[in-house]
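Researcher: We're reviewing a set of sequences before deciding which ones to prioritize for further study. For each one, I'd like a predicted 3D structure that I can look through quickly. This is Cation diffusion facilitator CzcD-associated flavoprotein CzcO. If possible, include the structure in token form so it fits the rest of the review sheet.
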Amino acid sequence: MTAAYADRHDGGPGSDGPGRSSDGGRGWDASGWDGDDGPGPDLDVAVVGAGLAGVGLGARLRRAGRTGFTVLERADDVGGTWRDNVYPGVACDIPSALYSYSFLPQPSWSRVFAPGAEIHGYVRDVVRSEGLAPHLRLGTDLTGARWDDDAATWRLTTSRGPLTARVLATAVGRLSEPRVPEIPGLGTFPGRVFHSARWDRDLPAGLRVAVVGTGASAVQLVPEVARRAASVVVLQRTPPWVLPRGDRAYAPGEAQPDRAALAAEAERLFDARIAGTRAEAELRDRAQDHLRAQVPDPALRELLTPDYAVGCKRALFSDDWYPALQEPHVTLEPSAPVAVEGSTVVAASGARYEVDVLVLATGFETTRPPFAHLVTGRDGRTLAEHWSGGMTSHASTVVHGFPNLFVLDGPNAGLGHHSALEVIEAQIGYVLGALDHLDATGVPLEVSADAEAAYTQEVDRRAAETVWLRGGCRSWYVDERSGRLTLLWPGRAAEFRARFATFDPTPFEGTRIRAVGRMSGDR
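Model: Here's the predicted structure for Cation diffusion facilitator CzcD-associated flavoprotein CzcO, in token form for your review sheet.
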């Protein structure tokens, strides 16, 4: 398998039309589902989202012989964040060798840190090689999901009509809904204005560009934009810690790094996420050495030095961020924008900048995912209401009051030191085990309130010792209302896999039980 599929495929992974798959899986046409009119739901599993989590789950379902599933995707292509983010310089910030499924590794990445288009191509390759096209429904929004307790079924509404499913698995990710700041006058800006995840592909060279934000996207795009723009101003609210990247192209025929060795190295980085440890101090020294080596001007270096612990916010990796900020046509504005007046961006410092383009590298809605408003559980409460004090779960995957719901890449399912695929693959294993249990018992699975509360307490206790809560910063890892760490797993990836890559029915005992028959039709 090669990433060249992104270039050679004619119409995207769903171009063959949904129809019926050769293995008997149900498809969809414009009038609705073409399954029989029997008593069972239309689908065994409805998966929402065709990014790395949704496509990975689909691949594993197929490999397990399960064909009665479909993957709903609101966009016209698969790939999730790697489809949406096409800004110049977009790339993985985890070594490429760790950024593919362990059951389907990509053996020929072009660089140490793969470009975004190459990762997108890999996801499309997986769709093709795993035969997922008949199971995809692209251009289909989920507009609502409600648990029907009497039928023990999820009733979904979509932009293409209603359907029912025994199991609902959300795989919408944390970086799917851009966060747009409320800046007075922003809507009246006469030039081009867009979020970094909605990049204007027709942007010409030679313009005056303002970039709002200094997070992961900005650190990647600013050096590239500076090569084409007449001028660039970077509006910085808080400076990031930046570590050396060491990216390079692989030579033709060069062996890829050993995945296991890279994984072990990544795991060791978790020690630096515990506040007050020697590992944390060593990581800070490394970041400060990188800053001193690349920024000789002490005044600029002071503006670029964070006042919080390394890793409290997302640690960034770049060898060209600091050099780009020292280009003669690039200005670092050490304050946030407070107003837009015509084509003028006004900073909190009082500085004013005339620009033609305004790029909002301002992150995403992470701790309060919009999809949670669409999902209604057993007692008529939405997932958003259940999460009003911050996202909670058991095993970072199941939620009390929401039977047969599995949330991938959701509460405490991220890693601040390793590849996201480590947790995603464990969650997929958990879902597959749960499906086997459902087949055996015919009883809906609802985790107990006690199990969810105990897991939440464990996460909170362990998070209290980390730089994410003790590092002195505000970050998108932490729920802004409750102050709880709700995005990251406060432990090592190996521990998460050991505990949650297989399904344990014990936390589900004692919940309300309703016996139902198995779904008719496809497994």
